[in-house]
Amino acid sequence: MNYLIVTDNPEVAVFGEQCGVRRIFVDLETLGKSERPVTPESVVACHRSENISQVQKAIDQADLVVRVNPLHSQTLVEVERCIDAGADHLMLPMFRSARELDQFCRFVAGRVGVIPLIETAGAMNDIDKIVRVEGVAEVFVGLNDLYLELGLQFSLQPLAMGLVDQIAACCREVDMTFGVGSASTVGPGDLPGAMVLGEYVRLGAKWTILSRSFSHPKDDVGDALKNSDLPHEITQLQLECERLAHRAANQVEADHREFCRRVARFIAERA
């Protein structure tokens, strides 16, 4: 499994890279966010496009992913600005069809990789076409907005309902890498981070975002550098991924059933 941190702070980006993070995620998406429901899982970044080049200059081996706004009248301008600033990949959010994604890929014109963010019902239903759009480098499933769009009660429900299985299957058909959701620290709880990670491994996901359970992605470099346990936490995640990848098939199925049971119980308790 490979990890992303969400930041436009060059010092935080360097810190993350030194700890083993493979991608830095700058989030420029603002259009339409104020109209969406706010949930405990919601994170609204306040990143600035002028910081893209600073982050790119600061990092060494990590890739730089920039999430732009949904398609709008100034998308081409935004694409040019991000590519000129040094983005390695551009992520398109809140699109609803392969046709929209194709228009975005035409703007990018193969200069950087395009990562469609699957977080609408339309995109989920069009996934078999999306993975075949020219210019798409890989796919990422955004669980938070997807569950809201589908009228569900919890961000992990799309995993428990098998909806992400369908997306993963389409990616496997064309040998396309995909990522999903976020990962928390390995530890106990009603829905332990290791159990969620087990679902990602079961599906074959290769990328996930480090969640707010890690203190460093808050865009406060003071908080970031105080988290001396981050290298240890990432090592623990990797060790857990290796264990999960070597499970027997019957254990994978048993773990999946337990995950679904706990999600159902969590929803019932929240209700």
CATH superfamily: Phosphoenolpyruvate-binding domains
Question: What oligomeric state do the depicted chains represent?
Answer: single chain
In DSSP terms (H or I, runs of 4 or more residues), the helix count works out at 13
Mean model confidence by pLDDT: 90
Q: Detail the poorly predicted runs.
A: none
| Percent of residues in helices | 40-55%
State the shape: globular
Output the CATH topology: TIM Barrel
Into how many domains do the coordinates divide? 1
CATH class: Alpha Beta
> What is the CA-based Rg, rounded?
18 Å
Question: In summary, what is this structure?
Answer:
The chain is an alpha/beta fold and 271 residues long. It has 13 helices and 8 strands.
Description:
The protein has 271 residues and is α/β, with parallel strands linked by helices. Helix 10 (193-203) crosses helix 12. The protein has one domain (2-213, 227-270): Alpha-Beta Barrel (TIM Barrel). Helices cover 46% and strands 14% of the residues. The chain has helices spanning 10-18, 52-58, 75-85, 98-108, 121-125, 127-130, 143-149, 157-160, 163-173, 193-203, 221-226, 230-245, 249-270; strands at residues 2-6, 23-27, 63-67, 89-92, 113-118, 139-141, 178-183, 207-210. It has an 8-stranded parallel barrel with strand order 1-2-3-4-5-6-7-8, surrounded by 7 helices.
Looking at this protein, list some descriptive labels:
globular, 8-stranded parallel beta barrel, 271 residues, TIM Barrel, 13 helices
SSE arrangement:
Blueprint: E1 2-6, H1 10-18, E2 23-27, H2 52-58, E3 63-67, H3 75-85, E4 89-92, H4 98-108, E5 113-118, H5 121-125, H6 127-130, E6 139-141, H7 143-149, H8 157-160, H9 163-173, E7 178-183, H10 193-203, E8 207-210, H11 221-226, H12 230-245, H13 249-270
Parallel strand pairs: 1-2, 1-8, 2-3, 3-4, 4-5, 5-6, 6-7, 7-8
Helix pairs in contact: 1-2, 10-12, 10-13
